[in-house]
Structures are given as structure tokens and as C-alpha cells.
Write a structure and sequence with these properties.
Blueprint: H1 18-38, H2 50-78, H3 81-103, H4 120-144, H5 155-179, H6 196-218, H7 224-246, H8 253-315, E1 319-324, E2 329-332, H9 334-340, H10 344-347, H11 361-372, E3 377-385, E4 391-402, E5 408-417, H12 419-441, E6 445-450, E7 455-458, H13 461-466, H14 470-473, H15 484-498, E8 504-511, E9 517-527, E10 532-539, H16 541-587, H17 592-618, E11 627-629, H18 631-646, E12 650-656, E13 663-665, H19 667-684, E14 689-700, H20 702-707, E15 714-723, H21 753-763, E16 767-773, E17 777-785, H22 794-799, E18 809-813, H23 817-829, E19 833-837, H24 840-849, E20 855-859, H25 868-878, E21 883-888, H26 892-897, E22 907-909, H27 914-926
Parallel strand pairs: 12-14, 18-19, 18-20, 20-21, 21-22
Antiparallel strand pairs: 1-2, 1-5, 3-4, 4-5, 6-7, 6-10, 8-9, 9-10, 11-13, 14-15, 15-17, 16-17
Helix pairs in contact: 1-7, 2-3, 2-8, 3-4, 3-5, 4-5, 4-6, 6-7, 7-8, 16-17, 17-21, 18-19, 19-21, 24-25
Length: 927
């Protein structure tokens, strides 16, 4: 590839400085001054000295030849046409000087060589001095016509062409002025002086020289060569003027002075070129020295780099291997010995397959092929084999090895042992997966916040506990969800955790999606490295409900102990009163006024005895006479007795199961309990209504028992007494079994009716549950243990069939949070997908958003503007194919007779066991 020329190193391209111009101008000035001194004496004849001519011409030819050679050498580098013309001009003057000397009369022959005539030397002089300005003008022309553009042709051919052209031209001109001199007009007169032709020719030659000077002056910018060429042309003009204009004959002062000016003209450019040559040689010497020093420095640098590179390769923890394109190992560092077990002596020269397992060799070939194509293989994970056969996990990076010309000759391979890292990654991934599973499946609420209390992570359990999806909370401040009264305490706990008190336990209430409060017990800690708070919150709703049930049971037990003691002591008093009243009555039998008083005392004592009997029943201390009874028969008998008691405005409807289990119970107490419940129902229906008496066989499972601590899972006979009365307000529902509690007017009730029922059922090992909706009615369910020792009935056999689940999607609508959570858990355990809503409005929103719901499982009586039946009607309007299953604390018969559902609907009465839930869901889905 050609190297660009540094043009600033040649006079022909180096811009002229002011110093160059001043020096040249000074020399021209001195020459002009001397010229002016010589002009008046130009015609003075001097001694004839032919040797001067020979010396002068020889010196002139030598100077011009050297100048031509130097200029041709610059042309060979710069390749410009302007330099070629100028070099040819100096070659022409050198050749013309030699021919002129050879043809000069009396120098080498009396009349000169070549058969010269008397006018030959004069014409050769004019050709010589007129030819050089023409070459200078050509130089000026090509210098202006983009003369710096390089020639595309060979410089060698151009120089040879120049030599031949100059030689041919000069030979032709010499032949004309020698062999054909008679054809040319004479320039010199016989005896001295100039002819008219001489004057014309010399004027033309001088004009050409002056034109060359003017051309050089106006062809800017000037180079150093241009400045000294102008100085040479000035001397050339002085030469022509003295030798051809102001002198009168050969060998006068003008003749000799002109020749000296010609020699000066030839020497100006030569001197400058020689100075340039010396400068270039000095510069080259300095450059060579600098290059030698640079080369030595670079050798030392590369040697040091090679030493450092070798040290880096050998000290690297990664195996660094080089190999040829056929896979032969060419280098092997210490780390490769450690990773693969082969020493460098054992490995170098062998194929790379010694560390490649059998099943990975095709992979190695494919990677090597990619390297041959110049491709870089970066961070490729694979498996390699040690010398002992053990497999190691490796991360490979392969790079092509290239020669300085770019040819790929091999590959450099960097192998990092990542076995331990992979093992660590697997362990870390396993730990992350375990923690993620804990995070996703935790029943507790797990929250992660930044230092400002903004949620960063929220566990999926937020949906079950707060009714909110994690994405609804992430990015929002915890202050939006915490109860205002608990906000300051929560902040204090967070500050304490950040002060280094690692674990904090406190309670705070959060708002559920539906607006109710959820109390959570929090364990919190702060991580300084990640600047995060970590909280685990346990929902205390069930715990608080269990504690409330436990307190209620304790309260009822304490009240029972108290009322039992009072009733026992009061019975003792009544025993004395009733025992002595008979004696007193006999004593005053003949005195009517006193007999009437004793009768009042006796009636009062009897009423006191009945009161203590109710108290003992509540305290579970009354004497019972249990026996196995037919519950249906007892209920039918009670219904007959109730007709006259309740009046015509109340309709009594028995709804009895055909195969009701027998119960081991005191029939008298049971009848009394049914009577008390019926009387309460009558009082709740002053304008009349319907009283439903119902029996059913029930199995209370472990799930129900866990929600009601006083219940033992097992088979029960249920007796339900339901009315269509005014219902019981929610704030009074927990007090209805308290003794002496009543909502009736003073004098219209003792407040012991429901207390007696509660005590009797508990004393008999049973369970009582009350369901009431204000404005709709009340249903009291008595669960009596099934009598043992009887054969399994058809109903029982049906309940014991295997439980069947499914994969459909079910929407549960239940306003009671505990019941809703219990139902969701049971339904999910059967394999179904469960959605939940607390009211009809939420349910309709979910139905509109999810077209995949297969079954609506809804409570009948719910707060708000829409009950369960209205919800089912609206859902059927929006989704005609949606199946519905109702549930209620009321029995099916009570619901139908209250007019809240149509006859024949699917209803699952509370409580129910898992098998009943599973069976009714399958029935509803198949309907």
C-alpha cells in the first residue's frame, strides 16, 4: 500500500517564508547592483581566454545536471508534472551548455566540432537561453493547473521520456544550426557588432525569460523553490543582457560578466537543493536515531508486556488454553492444571477432547467451527471432564487468534470452573423457592415496606384476610389501610425496630375491602442492609370470636352456678313454706277469711317452686329422667297441645323427617322446652303468623365443632322451632339465654324460658343454636344426641357415602365473616375454585367480571337492599345458565312458609356437614 507523501519536506512544496524571500531579494539586489556597475563597461575588450569558456561551460553543465538529478528525484516521489517540466529544463540547459562548448570556435577545434559554421555558437546560445524560459513557463503552467496532483503513469517511464525528448530536441536543433547554418540569418557582424536579426532574437529570448519571471511571481502561493527560481531568472536576465545586449563582441567585459551571471543562475537553485539535501540527510539521521530508540523502547515494552501477560495468564484463576484450528492444545496455564488435573506437559500437543465428555464432543466441534469463522463465543455454560473422570461445570469464552495480517490461526479459550457457583445457585434457588412458597401459601398476612411505609411486597393471603389483591396494595402507603387510632402506635413500633429492637409484637386494625375492621397481631423487624420493614400479621378474628364464645360459656356457667345455688336455697325455704302451709290451712279451715289467705300463700309457694325448677334447669342441676323416645311423636303431641294455647291467628305446621333417629332425653323437659319456644314465638307474632315445627337427622362435623367449642362432632337429631315474627336485634342475640333477660313488658315474662331450654339441652349433652333476622323471624334449633344401639337408617347410610368434589367455580355469598371463611375452606378442600362476596352488590360485580362461575351459593337473609332470593333472580337475569344453591340458618320448611323462597328450591340448612355440602353442590350443578 503506497505511503502518503510528506510534501512539507521538499523545497518544491515547502511554503516560502519571509526569511526566504528576504534572502533571495538581497541576492537579487546585490546582483542588480553589480549589473548596474558592469553595464557601462560591457563593451570594454578583454584578453581572449578560451580556457574560461571550457571551465565555465563545464561548471555550468555539472551544476545543471546535478540540479536536474535532484529535481528528478523529487519528481519520483511527488509525481507532479510541473517538477517533470522543470527537471527537463535543467537537463536541457546542461546539454545545451555541453553542445555550445563543443561547437565553440578555437576551443576543441579551430571552427568548433560538428562542422560548425561562423554563426553556430551564436544560434546555440540563443536556443540555450531561450529554451530554459520555455521550460520554466511550462513549470508555471502545470503548477497552476493542479500541478500538485500526482501522475498515475510510471515516474521511471516519464524520466526516460524526458531524457529522450530533451536529447532528441537538442540534437535536431544542433543539426539545424550546424548542417543547415546557411539557412539561418547571421547574428554577428564581421569584425564585431550585432546584426538586426541578433537584436530581434536577443529581444525575444530576453522577453521569454522576463515572462517566465513574471509567471513565477503571479503563480502563488510561492514555494521555496519558486523564490530561488525567480532569483535564478533574474540572474538569467542579467546574463542575457550583458552577454547579448550591452557587450559588443566576444571576450569583452559583458561577455565574461554575462557568463558569470549564467553560472550564478545555475548555482542558486543547486545551492538551495544541496542545502535541502543536507537538511534531509540530517533529518533522516535524526529520524533513524529516533526510530532506533523507539524500536528499542518498543522491544522493551513488548518484552515487558509479554512478561506481564505470561504472569497474568499463569496467575489467573481461570484456565487459559490456546489451541490450533484442528483442536490441538498449544498452551496450558497453571489454572488449567488445577481445574482439569493435567499438567502442561501432559496436555500440550494433545487434542482438546481429553477434557471433553463423550456426549459433548459434537458441541466442541461446532464451537471450534464458529471460531474458524471469526465468531466470538462468550460465556457458554457446558460440562468438562477432569483427568480422574469427574465432571465439572464450566463457563467457556472462546476468541479467534489472528496473525498481524488478520488470518485466523487458532483459538484462545478461557474456562472458569463454576461447579461451586452452580451448587450455590441451586441451593439459593431452592431457598428462594421455599420462601416464595411460604410467602404464597401462608395463611398469615406477610407485608414488606420500605423505610417510608410504602408496600413493596404483599402476600396473596391479603385477599382472604383483607379482601384486597396484592397489586391493590403494592406501591401504596400503609397509612391508607391502618385504622387511624392504631396509626401512631404502628409508627412507634416501626421506629423502635429501626433503632435496633429486632422483633416487635403489637396489634393493629386494618380495614377490610368491605369496610369492616380486621384486628391483626403483628411481628415486625427491620433489615438495615436492604432498608426494608418485614411484618407477619395473624388474623385475630377467629381467635377473638372463640374467646368471646369462651367468655360467653364461662358467663353462662358462672350464672348457672349462681342460679343453681340460689334455687337450691330457695327450694329449702319453699319446702318449709309448703310443708307448714298445709298444717295452717287445716287449722283455719273453719275461718273462711284466714283460709283464703293461706290459699294465696300456697299459690305463691307453687309459683316459687316453678321458678326454682326453671332456675335448676338453666343451671343443669334439675333431676332428669331420660329415656329413648320417638322425637316425631313427641313433637306431634306438642303440636296438638299448642293449638289452643297459641290461638287461631297462628298456623302450626309440623314438618317431620320420616326416619328421625330416636333420642335419649327426658320427654317432659323436652315438651316444656318446645312449649317455651312456642310461647316466645307467639309473643313475637302479635298479629299472627306461622310456626313451623321440624325434625331432621344431622351430622355435626369437626369443622362445625371447631367453630363451636361446646359441640362434640357426631350424629344429632335436630328439632327446629321457627316463626315469622319480628326477629331479634343483632345486639341482643348473645343475651337471649341469660336468666331473667327479657324484652317483654314488666309482668309479662320471667326471662327464664330460653334459659331453661339452654340449660336442659346442655345438661342432656346437646347443642342449641338461634338464627334470627330482624323483621323476618327467628329459628331456634335444638340438637339432641342420637340414641346409641340402633341400626343404621337409610338416611344415615346416604350420609356416609363417599364425598365427591369437582373442579367447577363457585361464588359464595355470606355476610358472616367466620361462616364465609369456613365455607370457602370446605369448598376448596373439595377441589372447587372458590370466590367470595360479603353482600349482593359485591356478588353481582364478581358475576359481571367472571363468566366462568358455575354455581351461586348464597345465604337467603342478608343485610342491604337485596336478599339472597333477589340476588339469585338478578343473577339469573344476567346469566340465565347460572345454577343457584341457597343456605340459611332457617330450615327449608320455615323459609318456604315465610314466603322467602319458592317450594322446590335447593336449600342447605345450617349447620351442615361436609358430606351434605358436597352432595348438595353436586345436586345443584346437575340440576
Amino acid at each position: 500500500m503506497p505511503v502518503p507523501n510528506d510534501r512539507s519536506t521538499f523545497l518544491s512544496t515547502l511554503p516560502a517564508t519571509q526569511s526566504d524571500r528576504r534572502t533571495a531579494l538581497a541576492i537579487v539586489g546585490i546582483s542588480a547592483f553589480l549589473f548596474a556597475l558592469a553595464v557601462p563597461f560591457a563593451s570594454v575588450p578583454l584578453e581572449r581566454m578560451p580556457a574560461f569558456i571550457a571551465s565555465y561551460q563545464s561548471a555550468l553543465a555539472v551544476c545543471d545536471i546535478i540540479t536536474a538529478v535532484l529535481l528528478f528525484s523529487q519528481f519520483a516521489v511527488l509525481r507532479t508534472r510541473a517538477l517533470l517540466w522543470l527537471s527537463s529544463g535543467y537537463l536541457f540547459t546542461a546539454a545545451a551548455a555541453v553542445v555550445h562548448a563543443l561547437s565553440f570556435p578555437g576551443l576543441f577545434a579551430p571552427n568548433g566540432l560538428f562542422g560548425s559554421g561562423p554563426q553556430t555558437t551564436a544560434w546555440l546560445y540563443m536556443i540555450w537561453h531561450g529554451g530554459f524560459p520555455l521550460f520554466v513557463l511550462a513549470y508555471v503552467w502545470w503548477k497552476g493547473a493542479n500541478g500538485r496532483a500526482e501522475m498515475s503513469a510510471s515516474t521511471r517511464n516519464a524520466i526516460i521520456g524526458s531524457l529522450l525528448g530533451v536529447g532528441a530536441a537538442l540534437a535536431a536543433l544542433t543539426w539545424i544550426v550546424t548542417a543547415r547554418d546557411g539557412l539561418l540569418p547571421p547574428l554577428l557582424k564581421e569584425g564585431g557588432g550585432f546584426t538586426a536579426a541578433q537584436v530581434g532574437v536577443i529581444s525575444f529570448v530576453w522577453s521569454l525569460s522576463f515572462a517566465a519571471l513574471i509567471g513565477l511571481w503571479f503563480r502563488r502561493p510561492h514555494t521555496v523553490l519558486d523564490v530561488w527560481l525567480m532569483a535564478a531568472m533574474c540572474a538569467w536576465l542579467f546574463d542575457i543582457a550583458l552577454s547579448g545586449i550591452f557587450n559588443s563582441a566576444r571576450f569583452d567585459l559583458g561577455f565574461y560578466a554575462g557568463r558569470l551571471y549564467g553560472l550564478c543562475a545555475a548555482m542558486f537553485v543547486l545551492a538551495v537543493l544541496l542545502v535541502e539535501n543536507v537538511r534531509l540527510q540530517a533529518q533522516m539521521a535524526r529520524q533513524v536515531g529516533r526510530l532506533r530508540r523507539q524500536s528499542s523502547s518498543e522491544r522493551d515494552y513488548h518484552a515487558e508486556r509479554e512478561r506481564l501477560f505470561s504472569a497474568v495468564v499463569e496467575s489467573s484463576n481461570d484456565a487459559i488454553i490456546t489451541k490450533s484450528l484442528d483442536g490441538t492444545i498449544t498452551s496450558w496455564n497453571h489454572a488449567a492444571e488445577r481445574v482439569f488435573g493435567y499438567s502442561a506437559t501432559e496436555a500440550v500437543g494433545r487434542p482438546i477432547d481429553i477434557v471433553v465428555p463423550e456426549g459433548r464432543r459434537d458441541e466442541t466441534k461446532e464451537i471450534l467451527a464458529r471460531t474458524r469463522n471469526g465468531e466470538v463465543v462468550d460465556q457458554h455454560e457446558t460440562v468438562r471432564m477432569k483427568k480422574n473422570g469427574q465432571l465439572v461445570d464450566i463457563m467457556l469464552s472462546l476468541y479467534p487468534l489472528r496473525t498481524p495480517e488478520g488470518k485466523i490461526i487458532g483459538a484462545s479459550e478461557v474456562a472458569r470452573d463454576i461447579t461451586e457457583r452452580k451448587r450455590t445457585e441451586i441451593a439459593l434457588n431452592r431457598e428462594i423457592e421455599e420462601r416464595q412458597r411460604i410467602f404464597e401459601t401462608s395463611q398469615d398476612l406477610i407485608l414488606v415496606t420500605d423505610g417510608y411505609g410504602t408496600f413493596v411486597q404483599v402476600s396473596p393471603s391479603a385477599t382472604a384476610i383483607l379482601g384486597l389483591k396484592p397489586e391493590d396494595m403494592i406501591g401504596r402507603s400503609a397509612t391508607e389501610f391502618i385504622h387511624p387510632d392504631d396509626l401512631e402506635n404502628t409508627r412507634n413500633e416501626m421506629r423502635a425496630a429501626r433503632r435496633g429492637q429486632v422483633k416487635r409484637s403489637f396489634e393493629a386494625r386494618y380495614y377490610h375491602y368491605d369496610g369492616h375492621e380486621v384486628t391483626l397481631n403483628w411481628m415486625g423487624t427491620w433489615s438495615e442492609p436492604v432498608k426494608r420493614h418485614f411484618f407477619i400479621g395473624r388474623d385475630l378474628t377467629e381467635k377473638q370470636a372463640a374467646e368471646a364464645q369462651f367468655r360467653q360459656a364461662q358467663k353462662m356457667d358462672s350464672i348457672g352456678q349462681l342460679t343453681g345455688g340460689v334455687a337450691h336455697d330457695f327450694n329449702n325455704v319453699l319446702t318449709v313454706i309448703t310443708g307448714t302451709i298445709g298444717i295452717l290451712a287445716d287449722a283455719v279451715a273453719d275461718r273462711p277469711e284466714l283460709a283464703a289467705i293461706t290459699k294465696l300463700i300456697d299459690d305463691a309457694a307453687e309459683r316459687g317452686a316453678q321458678l326454682t325448677k326453671h332456675l335448676l334447669a338453666f343451671a343443669r342441676k334439675q333431676p332428669l329422667q331420660p329415656r329413648e323416645i320417638d322425637v316425631n311423636a313427641l313433637v306431634l303431641e306438642a303440636a296438638k297441645l299448642l293449638h289452643p294455647t297459641l290461638g287461631e291467628q297462628i298456623s302450626i305446621t309440623p314438618m317431620l323427617t320420616e326416619d328421625a333417629w330416636p333420642a335419649l332425653i327426658d320427654p317432659g323437659q323436652l315438651s316444656t322446652a318446645i312449649l317455651n319456644l312456642a310461647l316466645n314465638a307467639r309473643d313475637a307474632m302479635p298479629d299472627g303468623g306461622t310456626l313451623v315445627l321440624e325434625t331432621r337427622n344431622i351430622f355435626l362435623d369437626d369443622g362445625y365443632a371447631s367453630m363451636n367449642p361446646d359441640v362434640v362432632a357426631g350424629n344429632y337429631v335436630m328439632i327446629a322451632v321457627s316463626d315469622t315474627g319480628s326477629g331479634i336485634p343483632p345486639d341482643l342475640i348473645d343475651r337471649v339465654f341469660d336468666p331473667f333477660f327479657t324484652t317483654k313488658e314488666v309482668g309479662k315474662g320471667t326471662g327464664l324460658g330460653l334459659s331453661m331450654v339452654f340449660g336442659f339441652v346442655k345438661q342432656s349433652g346437646g347443642h342449641v343454636k338461634i338464627y334470627s333476622e330482624e323483621g323476618h323471624g327467628t329459628s331456634v334449633k335444638i340438637y339432641l344426641p342420637r340414641s346409641s344401639g340402633v341400626q343404621e337408617t337409610e338416611y344415615e347410610a346416604l350420609q356416609n357415602v363417599p364425598i365427591a368434589g369437582g373442579d367447577e367455580k363457585i361464588l359464595i355469598v355470606e355476610d358472616d365473616t367466620l361462616v364465609r371463611q369456613y365455607v370457602v375452606t370446605q369448598i376448596k378442600s373439595l377441589g372447587y375454585a372458590a370466590l367470595e362476596a360479603a353482600n349482593a352488590a359485591e356478588a353481582l360485580t364478581i358475576i359481571d367480571a367472571d363468566a366462568g362461575i358455575d354455581l351461586l351459593f348464597t345465604d337467603v337473609i342478608m343485610p342491604g337492599n337485596m336478599n339472597g332470593r333477589q340476588l339469585a333472580d338478578e343473577a339469573a337475569r344476567r346469566r340465565p345458565d347460572l345454577k343457584t344453591l341457597f343456605t340459611s340458618g332457617y330450615t327449608e320448611n320455615a323459609i318456604v312458609h315465610h314466603g322467602r323462597l319458592d317450594s322446590g328450591v335447593l336449600l342447605l340448612a345450617k349447620p351442615y356437614r361436609k358430606s351434605e355440602l358436597a352432595r348438595m353442590i353436586r345436586t345443584a350443578l346437575a340440576s
